[in-house]
Design goal:
By secondary structure, the chain is an alpha/beta fold. It has twelve helices and 17 strands. The protein folds into two domains: about 140 residues, Alpha-Beta Complex (Aspartate Aminotransferase, domain 1); about 240 residues, 3-Layer(aba) Sandwich (Aspartate Aminotransferase, domain 2). It binds pyridoxal-5'-phosphate. The site of pyridoxal-5'-phosphate has 14 residues, from helix 5.
Length: about 400
């Protein structure tokens, strides 16, 4: 049989540096490679497989919809899309939801909403959006520009104007940009995921919410990675005690199928009108049916389980030999190591656990219901391979 890795290398665009592993199946928090080796999955496809692989309830919801119809255009109504929007609004207080297919698209929608909102309210010119240095908001040309890391800005210009970068956890830097520029919004990740699993502080977010009010800016959170229970609450912004105007999410929302959502709260409820935005696949019935099953299960006992697992990881690793620090929220954790992260990662893989990386940290994004026995094994391996 042809070697899948060789075919991939020959025919798939060179955009990914893949590990030398071909995944062939999985169940829950276990994945199996083409050699039959089993691993404890600590990456969940980068925070996507919320309840692990082939979770029964999710699979049933998706296959049930699949046997009815797989797609219709947004020219017609369909139940999963309506039910998902209703569920998200009831659980968050959002008023409307726009569905796309990815995190980048959810953020594109937020950017369009912010600009149109400002245009309607303040007139032309107040189009700038403050984002944070070291952020990550996606790979479309506009969301790359929203991303506050120069490394993403080379080779793909010219970029659209109107993005300003403040220092994370430095409210004065946000204030200075808001004072000296014509802005419409501030967009930030509650925890900078790709940037190294760095959480914002409550003091900072509270002050930014105050600045947003003072300068009449929309307060927008990118919860593409932190959302859908991963932080230990349904959305991470809840833990800051602020009221957002726009929240974007994707990844874990679909539990494994592509879907993105831009949630519009009171101020932005009527900003988008017919024809202002759209997506052929947005709100796809199968992805939405899967997402309904995910969001309906994210109740308090489930979120409590996320927090308990998080506490277990943090307390087991903190202060141990080879571990410098642990950052993050819930089951989105970054482990700063004394050893080189690539070395630790490859030892983890050979010992049968699959964490991922974020900058120089080991990143853990396990399923929200990962069995404690799997987590205990993973922690044991991390401790052993991190020691000098
Ligand atoms: C915070 C954040 N925003 C946006 C994105 C882009 O999401 P997608 O790859 O689904 O377009 C990511 C992806 O890692 C992300 O972590």
């Amino acid at each position: 049989m042809a070697d899948i890795k060789e075919i991939d290398k020959q025919y798939v665009a060179n955009t990914y540096a893949r590990f030398d592993i071909e995944i062939v199946s999985g169940k829950g928090s276990r994945v199996v490679d083409s050699n039959g080796k089993e691993y404890v999955d600590l990456g969940t496809g980068i925070a996507v497989n919320t309840f692990g692989l082939c979770d029964e309830q999710w699979t049933e919801a998706v296959t049930k919809q699949l046997s009815k119809f797989q797609h219709t255009s947004n020219l017609y109504y369909s139940e999963p899309c309506a039910r998902l929007a209703e569920l998200l609004c009831n659980k968050t207080g959002a008023k409307k939801v726009f569905f796309g297919n990815s995190g980048a698209e959810a953020n594109e929608c937020a950017i369009k909403v912010a600009r149109k909102w400002a245009q309607d309210k303040k007139g032309a010119g107040d189009y700038s959006i403050i984002t944070l240095k070291n952020s990550f908001h996606g790979r479309t040309v506009t969301t790359l520009m929203a991303t506050g890391q120069d490394v993403f800005h080379k080779d793909f210009g010219p970029f659209p104007e109107g993005f300003l970068y403040a220092e994370a956890n430095n409210a004065e830097s946000v204030r200075a940009l808001a004072e000296n520029n014509k802005c419409c919004a501030i967009l930030m990740e509650p925890v900078q995921g790709e940037g190294g699993v760095l959480p914002l502080t409550k003091e900072f977010v509270t002050e930014v919410a105050r600045i947003a009010k003072e300068f009449d800016l929309l307060l927008m959170f990118d919860e593409v990675q932190t959302g859908n229970g991963r932080s230990g609450t349904l959305y991470a912004y809840e833990q800051f005690g602020v009221s957002p105007d726009v929240v974007t999410t994707a990844k874990g929302l679909g539990g494994g199928l592509p879907i993105g959502a831009c949630m519009l709260f009171e101020k932005t409820e009527t900003t988008l009108l017919s024809g202002d935005h759209g997506s052929t696949f947005g709100g796809n019935p199968i992805a939405a049916a899967g997402a309904v099953s995910i969001i309906s299960r994210l109740d308090e006992p489930c979120l409590q389980g996320v927090r308990e697992r998080s506490d277990y990881i943090i307390s087991s690793l903190t202060g141990k030999p080879g571990i410098k620090s642990i950052t993050g929220m819930g089951l989105m954790l970054g482990i700063e190591l004394e050893k080189d992260v690539n070395l630790v990662l490859s030892e983890c893989i050979s010992r049968g656990i699959l964490p991922i990386k974020a900058k120089n940290k080991l990143r853990l994004l396990p399923a929200l219901n990962i069995p404690m026995a799997d987590l205990e094994y993973a922690v044991r391996v991390i401790l052993e391979v991190s020691k000098q």
